[in-house]
Design goal:
The chain has 501 residues and is an alpha+beta fold. Helices cover 20% and strands 37% of the residues. The strands form eight sheets. Strands 19, 20, 21, 22 and 23 form a five-stranded antiparallel β-sheet that branches. Strands 6-5-4-28 form a four-stranded antiparallel β-sheet, with no helix packed on it. The protein has a four-stranded antiparallel β-sheet with strand order 7-8-9-10, with no helix packed on it. Helix 5 packs antiparallel against helix 6 (112-121), helix 5 runs parallel beside helix 7 (127-137) and helix 7 (127-137) runs antiparallel to helix 8.
């Protein structure tokens, strides 16, 4: 029997009372799905909670609500198997043929977890196939996400992109690419004695130079703060006022689209020297210090509700925790003096930290960690605490194997402890140079060298998609991007520092 295309039908109860229905679920929670001669046994509740097609079917009142076997003819067996793996919590790596079948399944059965999994798998090898297929089947979220990835790598993929239909090429070219952005270490200022060097700057890759994006609000501090980006906005939490270690008790958010600053609540536990991470609509403040004591608490800020709540503590107290995201997963790097580096994964659904692997290296202090595809790169000082050199080790999530990266990387060329990955490139910066590395197998090759950032102190680097506006070079006397910049000295949660054209 062929199941008709149910779409999003009006919900109603299956035949029988609620008590009878509950008894049937307890007796037989599984359902068989037959596709192309293959039969899959699946948890009925799992299908209903993760797949719009089955949710509509099981709530439709049709006789299929009570059937033990359902026949599907709209998707392939292989695509449905991938969907089942994903909704059961697996993370399969897919071939090109499996990608096409999975996208087809995601489109017809409306399996949102599968769409998210495919978005996490996008890379330079499969992005064109994913983009074309997602656009063909109308999986808009995946299509847009992949188009943005292609836009970020447009120069490297320019020849291959020509194979796409013109309308798809035009859409990619209409998008704004990610820009390498940096903010240095700055304490709060005041209206009478403003520090006009307190700026957030971006790299103009065409001119190979740094330019001003915006000024920090007077009350904002990036000294030992947590800094991150979430949904196109810059967030700052937990900076210090001065050497007294007094913590700034407001968070600051910069909206790139409107070029405005606003405030939001600080974590319930004031902290500095913490790590801030943005993930799926929330900020995570990891560890840090308070009153010169290292802490292990973690707090989660839900942007939509404007509230902080405590999450699972770090495995042990830690500050300036190296962290990264890979394929939609959160990882941190902790070290035990002095020869062990541990990688933990945070599982949001279970709210727990799980030890993934341990690396034993002499003087193995992990200072930074970045991700590319399914690889985690851990950077540390060279032998004998040589801060002008950087050693790297790579952990592959799929194979569970560590690889020592060959050679040493000159930290004087590019500060690898502030590395940011975009596509197949890694951007680094220090006072001397901004360096773009190309990730090629088991090595990073210098691709381009540009002007460094001529200021001292720690730097936070990240990617933002900036509106197409004319900006002035870093160091211009007005430092105002050709705009009338206004900062409200008495910044309240309802106030903002504005940059008006």
């Amino acid at each position: 029997m062929k199941i008709p295309d149910s779409g999003l039908m009006e919900s109603s109860s299956c035949a029988g009372s609620e008590e009878d229905g509950a008894a049937k679920v307890l007796e037989n929670p599984a359902v068989r799905v037959r596709i192309e001669g293959d039969v899959f046994t699946a948890d009925k509740v799992l299908l209903e909670s993760n797949c719009e097609y089955f949710r509509a079917l099981f709530q439709s009142g049709m006789k299929e609500c009570q059937q033990e076997e359902i026949h599907l003819q709209v998707v392939s067996a292989r695509g449905f198997l991938v969907a089942l793996q994903v909704i059961r919590g697996e993370r399969p790596i897919l071939s090109d043929d499996e990608i096409v079948k999975a996208i087809e399944c995601a489109a017809f059965l409306q399996v949102q977890p599968l769409v998210r999994h495919l978005m996490n798998l996008v890379n330079s090898d499969n992005c064109l196939l994913m983009y074309h297929t997602a656009a063909t089947y109308g999986v808009l979220e995946l299509s847009r996400s992949t188009a943005l990835f292609i836009r970020d790598m447009y120069q490297d993929l320019k020849e291959e992109v020509r194979c796409l239909p013109k309308e798809l090429i035009d859409y990619v070219e209409s998008l704004v690419p990610s820009t390498y952005v940096m903010v240095g270490t700055h304490s709060p200022s005041n209206q009478q004695l403003q520090n006009f060097m307190r700026t957030v700057c971006y790299l103009d890759e065409d001119e190979k130079d740094w330019k001003v994006l915006t000024h920090l609000p007077l009350d904002a501090s990036t000294t030992m703060a947590g800094v991150t980006v979430l949904n196109g906005k810059l967030y700052i939490v937990g900076g210090l006022y001065d050497l007294s270690n007094r913590v700034v008790d407001s968070g600051f958010c910069y909206d790139v689209a409107s070029s405005t600053w606003s405030t939001f609540p600080s974590p319930q536990q004031l902290r500095y020297n913490c790590t801030l991470l943005g993930h799926e609509g929330s900020l995570y403040a990891l560890g840090g210090e308070f009153e010169r004591t290292t802490i292990s608490s973690v707090e989660k800020y839900d942007v939509s509700t404007d509230r902080w709540s405590f999450a699972a503590h770090l495995p042990r107290p830690a500050s300036s925790v190296p962290c990264t995201k890979s394929m939609g997963r959160i990882f941190i790097c902790l070290w035990k003096p002095k020869d062990a580096t541990e990688i933990y994964e945070y599982l949001p659904i279970k709210n727990e930290w799980v030890l993934l692997t341990t690396l034993i290296r002499h003087q193995s202090y992990g200072h930074c960690m970045v991700a590319h595809r399914d690889n985690l790169y851990v950077m540390r000082n060279g032998p004998c605490d040589d801060f002008l050199r950087c050693m790297m080790d790579c952990y592959n999530l799929t194979t569970g194997q560590w690889t020592a990266m060959p050679g040493q990387y000159e930290n004087s060329k590019g500060a690898l402890f502030t590395a940011v990955v975009r596509g197949d490139s890694v951007f680094t910066v220090n006072r001397r140079a901004t360096v773009e590395y190309s990730i090629e197998g088991d090595k990073w090759r210098t691709k381009k060298e540009m002007t460094g950032f001529p200021r001292i102190g720690s730097m936070w680097t990240f990617l933002l998609r900036l509106p197409k506006k004319s900006k002035e070079p870093l160091g211009k006397p007005e430092l105002s991007n050709g705009q009338n910049f206004k900062v409200l000295s008495d910044l309240r949660p309802s106030s903002s520092a504005e940059c008006n054209d």
